[in-house]
Design brief:
Strand content: 15-25%
Oligomer: single chain
CATH topology: Rossmann fold
Number of domains: 1
Helix content: 40-55%
Distance between the termini: 29 Å
Shape: globular
Number of helices: 10
Number of strands: 12
Length: 318
């Protein structure tokens, strides 16, 4: 996500000053080369309050966006305490540093559609006025983060805007996420590297939005979003995971069998998540550029290039 947002900002204004921080090193290889030499980067942990405070004090940013978190629902089921503490405390350290420094920075609090919990299909699409009802540790942490945003906006006057972001897709996404995992497996089947595709629950319906549209929406919200408000970042369209997998297989010309793996099925899952993006569009003028078909084409191309480089089989089964 950070790479996509950096790329988007630089495309708008090559002279923009970008300060990035992460526990992982800055990527400068394929897919990350646009950042090399153009980002002031710090490596460390956002759980270290002094480290966060010092960076914000040094650079006095106009805008702050937190993309550092464990964002996998599956990971949160396996590591509930670590996920909750990490995601909540990271955000708290950021906004409390902004408060202490009286920096005036506008903060974007990135939340999740998982916050809504199970909602009847008759109540779709989901709107921001609906109550939250998280049913997994990741979602519970996001609700806590959103509540902290409200406290700091109302109590301390911080300019914080919140999102409830729906499922991202796009080139470069790790294969711990369903669509990217499907695309990798389909591509491996096309290249003769596997003979079947494994999956979890294909019956759930999700609202997918391309990460390149997501960063555009985030930038617009940092510019035009209202303090204390919550905005869905979504496409407004729902697709069953089985449909997405079939689209990928058809695009790749692959007819590999699909096998369900019980280990990939979560203890609890929202059956249908589809959002309304009317509030976002009305507030910012946001319009999507990438539909799901285009996103899947680009994800397949990404995995094809990555796997051919890794396996040294460039040119095979093209």
């Amino acid at each position: 996500m950070g790479e996509h947002y950096t790329r988007y900002l630089l495309s708008k204004d090559p002279s923009v000053e970008i300060v990035g921080a992460d526990i992982k090193p800055l990527r400068t290889g394929p897919g990350g080369d646009t950042q090399a030499g153009k980002v002031t980067f710090y490596r460390g942990s956002f759980l270290d309050k002094k480290w966060v405070f010092d960076i914000i004090k040094r650079h006095k940013p106009d805008r702050v966006i937190n993309l550092a978190s464990y964002s996998s629902v599956a990971f949160s089921w396996e590591n509930p305490s670590e996920c909750f503490v990490n995601n909540t405390n990271i955000f708290l350290n950021i906004i409390d540093s902004v408060r202490e420094l009286k920096s005036g920075a506008k903060v974007l609090s990135v939340g999740s559609s998982e916050e809504y919990g199970p909602v009847s299909e008759k109540d779709m699409p989901l709107e921001e006025s609906m109550r939250t009802g998280p049913i997994n540790p990741y979602a519970a942490a996001r609700v806590a983060q959103e509540n902290l945003s409200g406290v700091y906006a109302a109590g301390y006057g911080l300019d914080i805007v919140c999102t409830r972001s729906f499922n991202h897709v796009g080139p470069g996404q790790p294969d711990i996420f369903a669509v990217s995992s499907f695309a990798r497996q389909v591509t491996e089947a096309r290249l003769g590297l596997r003979d079947k595709i494994t999956c979890g629950n294909l019956g759930i319906v999700r609202d997918f939005i391309d990460v390149r549209d997501v960063v555009k929406a985030y930038d617009l919200l940092l510019e035009k979003g209202k303090k204390g408000e919550i905005y869905n970042v979504c496409s407004g369209e729902g697709y069953r995971l089985s449909e997405v997998l079939e689209m990928l297989k058809r695009k790749a010309g692959v007819d590999a069998p699909v096998e369900k793996n019980a280990a990939l099925v979560r203890p609890a899952d929202n059956p249908v998540i589809v959002g309304s993006c009317r509030k976002l569009e009305s507030a910012t003028g946001f319009k999507r550029k990438y539909d799901l078909s285009r996103s899947l084409d680009d994800i397949l191309a990404y995995w094809k290039n990555s796997l051919e480089r890794a396996s040294g089989i460039s040119g095979k089964n093209k």
